[in-house]
Amino acid sequence: MIQAPTEHSPARCPGIVIAALRGGSGKTIFSVGIIAALRNRGATVAPFKKGPDYIDAGWLALAAGRPCYNLDTFLIEAPTICKSYHRHTQGIDFALIEGNRGLYDCINTEGQTSTAELAKLLDLPVLLCIDGTKTTRTMAAVVSGCARFDPALRIRGVVLNHVAGARHERILRDSIEQYCGIPVLGAVPKLRKQSLPERHMGLVPTYEHQWAQDAVGTIAELAEKYIDLTALMSAAEVRLKARPPGVLIPSGDRPASDKRPLPDAQAMPARPRIGIIRDSAFQFYYPENLEALVHAGADLVVTSPLYEDQLPDVDALYIGGGFPETHAARLSRNITYREQIRRLAEDGLPIYAECGGLMYLGRSLVLEEGTFPMAGVLGVSFGFSKKPQGHGYTIVQIDRPNPFFEVGRTIKGHEFHYSSVLALEADLDATAFAVERGSGLKDGRDGLCRNNVLATYTHIHALGTPLWAPAMVARARAYRDSQDRPTQAKDPH
Questions:
Q1: CA nearest 381: which of 319, 339, 325?
Q2: Mean pLDDT for the stretch of residues 373-388
Q3: The whole model's pTM is what?
Q4: 167 and 48: one domain?
Q5: pLDDT for 96
Q6: What is the total count of domains within the chain?
Q7: Which helix (H) or strand (E) holds 276?
Q8: Residues annotated as part of the active site
Q9: Rounded Cα distance, 262 and 258, in Å
Q10: Distance, CA of 56 to CA of 60 (rounded, Å)
């Protein structure tokens, strides 16, 4: 069991954990609305997402106007979780953590990896989202059970979702407050208009819609109208500093505790350039992963095969996950870009790819509309199903040589993909991972290698796999040096 923090725990920023009885209860809508409404009032809010998630985190970041960081006790050790929370809540007013699944849902009967355990670890109160559809007084028994199940957990409020009308709200509210002694801080009625459409098992990525900011504004208005934000802030023991509305701390600023002088650019060693393919096809990157690459000594260069014909001058390439299948035709039409990647991979360019990136490096994507050629770096073709072919946490053993991980190590990650291997030309001996938990690529293997390329279905988090970023940067530096490129230092600004 994860223990609550000690008296000297760094997790002292006021905040709240948004939880629910199950997935699909409205946690993301409530979280986005609360963050955006508080931001409109002039508060600075640090958003976090519990669990391995990119899409919800993107909406939370958009609402807050600053990066959303993931807190996952399966992927990341508890002390590192606390340090991350502390580091990313310096100089802000309030922290909001959106949980995942149900409040007590986890991977075992001990409660490990649950939203409840994270709330106790950070010593934060919980706001419980309740779907009131077709229920009244029974919900008081459910809320009471959640509160009594773990007395160490502090459930400080309830918000009701999908309320049918004033009478329905009154019975729910009175029952919960009378029998549970927990205040109902808001009630949102059933809404005819869907502000955030769903895809697969999550919300549509913000990258894919120009109206995303308008949607956040609409949800903020709902939060102001239907949630008692003053009572919520009181439950979280938040006292906002006096600041005129709209005066926010820019998300790019370093916290006040880190105002050290920047180093002299001329005294710094040359920094290799790592390309990040980032657009609506490849958008799943943890902020911590990108920050880890910078901290390890790299400069990041964002690029996109959807909008550019040429890969920029880089010393390595990182291709994250996403939905390349929804952009297959455009990716396939950009022959120059994908052929350049294939040539550079043959030349030894270090490439690390996850899930969608793995698919892009393959031979082709086979969809109902046809077969679409991809980069052809790896001898594998992919098809797609309507149900997930891999979903959940993964554990892999590094049992064969590869460009980025030491043989003998264990990596924890997660996977979520609708694709599967249709044809594998490469031998499974070219894979570096033995899958202990998860689906992987095929036959208990994952991590397809070729030259300095490693592509896998497993997503990693840099805080849980701290040796990945230094290895990536070291490979990039070695490749640059092998090309006899200029080594002029970059401006750290």
A1: 325
A2: 95
A3: 0.87
A4: yes
A5: 98
A6: 2
A7: strand 273-277
A8: 355
A9: 10
A10: 6
